[in-house]
Amino acid sequence: MARPFSDGVPVQPRLRKPYVRHQPDSSVLVQVVLTWLETFVAMASEAYLRPLPRHVAQEFQKYLRCEILAWGFARACC
Fold it and tell me: What are the distances in angstroms from CA 22 to CA 3, 69, 76?
């Protein structure tokens, strides 16, 4: 039901969309990282004079862990 605004013009209530969780495991990027991360790290270590910086592999691991609800999540509404 519309409620009147201060000048008498009705204001429609905002309709909230129901929460629908995205499916990260079906994401192409997640599948590529999951499939090729170990190979990438191993090949990079062999192919270059210096090893891959540790933070690079760690960031990929964090990215993969980010998609798992067991590590926690938050939902905010404004």
Answer: 34, 11, 15
